[in-house]
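Appendix B. Raw example, untouched.
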Amino acid sequence: MAMLYRLITGRGLRGGCVLALLAGLPAAALAQNVGGAVVGLLRATSDKEGWGTANDFYFRRGKGRYQLAGAEWQTDRVAVNNVQIAVGGGREPQTYYLNDVRQVVIGADSFVTVFDVRRWSQPQAAPTLVLGKRAWRRPQVELFTVNTFAGEIPLLRFPDQTAVALPLKQKDYQQAMLALVGDYSALATQLRTGQLDASHTAQILETYLRWKPAGFNPTTLLAAWPAVK
């Protein structure tokens, strides 16, 4: 188990761990050889690392494009997960951690490293970086999803680079979105009556922008954090 922990966390390894393991294993091998104990270990590791329930088993691979920090776009075989990306074929692909990566595109999926993410559900936690899958984009705000064991968490990033991960719990989600779009009475009513939840985030943002094209004030969202009250 100690060896397995070092493999998963990357301690005692050079150049990367989880993605190299995942990229090299078929789904059947993962199901047969990894098991529930590893899932629990990954949960504990993720909590310790600071991103709650980030799902380290999530990955996407294929021929695509990627952009490293300060570099031009490049084309190659790419595999990406919540920890790092691997570039190139063969048994030992080149790996990069998320802080070295800006964007990855595989097929129709676009992934972005989002920095300084604040979490509504844990406002006292230090901001962190996460891998966000772009779900919707307008000049006034971008919507990403972060794959976790709890589900896909919606993540908003505003033009000033303020990034906030929204809660999945219905009551907390309503509170967060009311702080952001509550001045539009029609949306406020739908949120308060439970007609809208986290799965409707793109719809909420789109509707609000049709009503108020100037966009959002992220400070209203930050000011409504539970810790402030």
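End of appendix B.
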